[in-house]
Amino acid sequence: MDKKQEELLNRLLGDVKNIEELDKLTDDLKKRGIKVC
User: What domain of life does the UniProt record list for this protein's source (predicted)?
Assistant: First the structure.
């Protein structure tokens, strides 16, 4: 794997983590009765 592919993979993994965090946040907000688009 070359450097560019490695960078891309790291970025994707970072995005996945962000999405998971976002899911946790939206779940938390829904439990509090706040509507999330």
Answer: Bacteria
